[in-house]
């Protein structure tokens, strides 16, 4: 007989169980979240208002910043609020919604990073055809394809979980609703679903990571024929992209390209790609990019001058 669905809410065990450390964790993650939102918002505003950042690379960067801001906002506020709540609950529907949105923005970011690598490949390996290939229509279509790909992935991932029966226990050893902790609570054999999760999440991460590595290897090989100045500028841009790719994809591959088991390290690894990486992205792209830094200075000067005039 198939077990009935009688779980109406889940209890999140959270990230920190030490009551003495919870206020410290609260302050730490509040500061991280504020920095993440402000950092990514600054990039979006800078790209939108700067006449010098109109290339496809910055068009994609502004969308990456938007996705990072949303991705972090799915988990961080709930994590922060739960530090001072003894019973950390989330409704069944809320849990499924969180699962959907986390994977939607996470997978969209994977595809956006892949699109950005393609943009760099065209810019460096086919510079004479760059403007004719990377038109506004093409860039918009690539961003739209990233959103659609993220949506389809997330729908599939959510369907795999939502059709499972949950009859108790209802304690999730995590700080948000994710696939592996939920599979652990299902009242049925989840081996086949676990395999499908690997195919859906793990293989997307791995394939995109391999595509990214291959594209950057091709770019590096092509740079041998460039002038030292051109090589330096291209390397600076590509190094930023490679750093983001490694930081983001490493934890993802560890989490999803494996059997449906949970490890004690999972929570810290997940913190890295859901909270730390969205903060690091704006830092990496601004600190290593003179054009973005100059545009930010000019935007700050413009805002300051308008503020002085108004007073």
Rg = 21 Å
Number of spatially distinct domains: 1
Q: Briefly note the structural class of the backbone.
A: mainly alpha
Tell me the major beta sheet. 3 strands, mixed
Distance between the termini: 75 Å
Number of helices: 10
Number of strands: 3
Can you tell me the CATH topology?
A: Rhopdopsin 7-helix transmembrane proteins
Strand order of the largest sheet: 2-1-3
Helix content: over 70%
Class, according to the CATH hierarchy?
A: Mainly Alpha
Low-confidence parts: none
User: What is the average of the pLDDT values?
Assistant: 87
H/E order of the elements?
A: EHHEHHHEHHHHH
Shape: globular
Would you identify the CATH architecture? Up-down Bundle
CATH-wise, what's the superfamily? Rhodopsin 7-helix transmembrane proteins
Quote the beta fraction: under 5%
Describe the protein.
There is one protein chain. The protein has 311 residues and is mainly alpha-helical. The protein has a single domain, classed as Rhopdopsin 7-helix transmembrane proteins (Up-down Bundle), CATH 1.20.1070.10. Helices cover 74% and strands 3% of the residues. The chain has a three-stranded mixed beta sheet with strand order 2-1-3. Helix 3 (92-125) packs antiparallel against helix 8 (228-256). It starts with 8 loop residues before the first strand and ends with a helix. The model has no long low-confidence stretch (mean pLDDT 87). Residues 39-285 form the G-protein coupled receptors family 1 profile domain. It is a multi-pass membrane protein.
């Amino acid at each position: 007989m198939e077990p009935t669905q009688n779980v109406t809410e889940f209890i999140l065990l959270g990230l920190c169980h030490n009551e003495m450390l919870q206020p410290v964790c609260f302050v730490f993650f509040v500061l991280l979240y504020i920095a993440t939102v402000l950092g990514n918002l600054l990039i979006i505003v800078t790209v939108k208002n700067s006449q010098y950042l109109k290339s496809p690379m910055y068009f994609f960067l502004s969308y990456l910043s938007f996705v990072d801001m949303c991705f972090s906002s799915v988990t961080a506020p709930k994590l922060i609020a739960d530090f001072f709540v003894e019973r950390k609950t989330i409704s069944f529907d809320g849990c499924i919604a969180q699962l959907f949105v986390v994977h939607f923005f996470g997978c969209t970011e994977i595809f956006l990073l892949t699109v950005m690598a393609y943009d760099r490949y065209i810019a460096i390996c086919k510079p004479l055809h760059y403007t004719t290939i990377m038109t506004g229509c093409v860039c918009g279509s690539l961003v739209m394809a990233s959103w659609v790909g993220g949506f389809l992935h997330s729908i599939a991932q959510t369907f795999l979980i939502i059709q499972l029966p949950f009859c108790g226990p209802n304690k999730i050893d995590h700080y948000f609703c994710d696939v592996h902790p939920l599979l652990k609570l299902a009242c049925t054999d989840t081996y086949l679903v676990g395999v499908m999760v690997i195919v859906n999440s793990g293989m997307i991460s791995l394939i995109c990571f391999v595509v990214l590595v291959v594209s950057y290897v091709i770019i590096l090989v092509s740079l041998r024929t460039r002038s030292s100045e051109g090589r330096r500028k291209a390397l600076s841009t590509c190094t930023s992209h490679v750093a983001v790719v490694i930081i983001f994809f490493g934890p993802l591959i560890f989490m999803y390209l494996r059997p449906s088991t949970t490890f004690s390290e999972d929570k810290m690894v997940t913190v890295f790609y859901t909270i730390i990486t969205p903060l690091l992205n704006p830092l990496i792209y601004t600190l290593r990019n003179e054009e973005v830094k100059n545009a930010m200075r000019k935007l700050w000067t413009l805002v300051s001058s308008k503020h002085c005039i108004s007073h």
